[in-house]
Amino acid sequence: METLPAAALVLALIGASTALGLVWRARQGRVRAAGGSEVIRPADVDASVAFGDRATLLQFSTEFCARCPGTRRLLGEAADARPGVTHVDVDLTHRADLATRFNILQTPTTLILDGTGRVRARVGGAPHRSEIARQLDELTVDARPPAPLSPLRSRNVPSR
Questions:
Q1: 3-state class of 119 per DSSP?
Q2: Would the pLDDT of 90 be above 50?
Q3: Which pTM value belongs to this model?
Q4: Residue 106 gets which letter from DSSP?
Q5: Contact, 142 vs 128, CB < 8 A?
């Protein structure tokens, strides 16, 4: 092979792999809305803690995942900052059945559940703090009970 065509081929491969890498990186950590009606219960993932009454951050991890400890801290802090929100971490190292059932292709993967356990969003990779906060704000606002009616102020009305 001649030098010029070989160099052009190498540059084209470098360009294509760079473009694919940038696309992949841009998609990591983004929250995608889940349109399904799938409902997950604690027993479905062998969780020993109850899910939150307003929202649950369901994180799927493995023992050898480099980004999972940071994600665990971020999601734990987000859950602790909001009443009714729980963070549950499920280790998939020895649970390929759960990875298959919930279509987990990478770790960490986080499912954001509403108070009923319905999957509202999915995050592949390490999530962005601001996007998790925005999703939780939407869920906790939706789950708030209606504000109590304010009592009527009594007016000085002469008695009859």
A1: strand
A2: yes
A3: 0.73
A4: S
A5: no
